């Protein structure tokens, strides 16, 4: 039984509640390590600390991203790319009684607590390739988890670091990440979204979009195309588009969407795009039915 068949069964027997799943679902492309910086260059993640400090907490693989991809325990997660915001992410090993409130991202003048705004799906299980769930809410007893801070962009900061507030441990940002923290983010404008006006449920639907990097900064384009899956115990399916785009350049990308689990009734549904660009398109669905 594949993932969608399983979720369709859960939707029929449990009215689509998040409680019908446990653990971390397998999903094509999930758990992929993010190794591309915002300027499109390849980066190498640091390995975990060999010996955690005396307080039992280790933080590594710290990075700054102008936009992030995340995975969720329901649905397929998506993309966060908010103008004027950026994200400091890290992998963490911590005791089971640790919580997100034990950590802060600090500079010499300000501090921020962990947390991400406006994500979809249930509990996030990966952000920017850092896996295991947020600190204090991991899966399967694994002591690996992640931290994700949403901070202003750009941010000129003295002594930026992640601090374990319940102890004396601090982890400074690597030099290249300090530079990125204060760097401008790329900006993209949507040129077009092409989607069919109608589709027969069960058909594969192709959607394409074109966007231009209108800034003076080379960068990484990120956006998620969301399509409803109302007949399964799931949130809307997301299809992430990720491309390195030089300043002033245009990019075009397309995704193929399975429409088998869209709706129980014929009628219009909303295709949406979120990330560096945003859009909505109504698509009329024909021949809708509950899949067996």
TrEMBL record:
<protein>
    <recommendedName>
        <fullName>CARDB protein</fullName>
    </recommendedName>
</protein>
<feature type="region of interest" description="Disordered">
    <location>
        <begin position="15"/>
        <end position="60"/>
    </location>
</feature>
């Amino acid at each position: 039984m594949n993932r969608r068949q399983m979720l369709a069964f859960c939707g029929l027997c449990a009215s689509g509640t998040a409680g019908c799943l446990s653990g971390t679902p397998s999903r094509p492309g999930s758990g992929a390590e993010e190794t591309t910086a915002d300027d499109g260059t390849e980066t190498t993640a640091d390995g975990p600390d060999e010996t955690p400090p005396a307080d039992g907490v280790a933080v590594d693989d710290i990075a700054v991203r102008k936009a992030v991809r995340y995975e969720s325990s329901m649905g397929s997660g998506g993309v966060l790319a908010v103008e004027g915001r950026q994200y400091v992410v890290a992998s963490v090993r911590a005791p089971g009684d640790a919580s997100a409130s034990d950590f802060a991202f600090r500079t010499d003048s300000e501090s921020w607590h962990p947390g991400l705004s406006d994500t979809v799906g249930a509990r996030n299980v990966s952000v920017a390739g850092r896996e295991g769930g947020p600190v204090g809410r991991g899966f399967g007893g694994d002591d690996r988890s992640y931290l994700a801070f949403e901070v202003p962009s750009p941010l000129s900061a003295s002594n930026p670091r992640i601090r374990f507030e319940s102890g004396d441990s601090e982890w400074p940002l690597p030099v290249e990440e300090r530079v990125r923290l204060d760097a401008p983010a790329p900006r993209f404008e949507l040129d077009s979204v092409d989607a069919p006006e109608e589709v027969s449920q069960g058909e594969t639907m192709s959607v394409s979009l074109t966007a231009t990097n209108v800034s003076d900064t080379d960068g990484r384009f990120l956006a998620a195309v969301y399509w409803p899956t109302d007949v399964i115990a799931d949130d809307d399916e997301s299809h992430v588009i990720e491309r390195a785009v030089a300043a002033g350049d245009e990019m075009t990308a397309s995704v193929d969407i399975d429409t088998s689990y869209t709706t129980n009734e014929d009628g219009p549904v909303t295709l949406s795009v979120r990330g560096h660009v945003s859009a909505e398109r109504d698509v009329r669905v024909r021949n809708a039915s509950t899949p067996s």
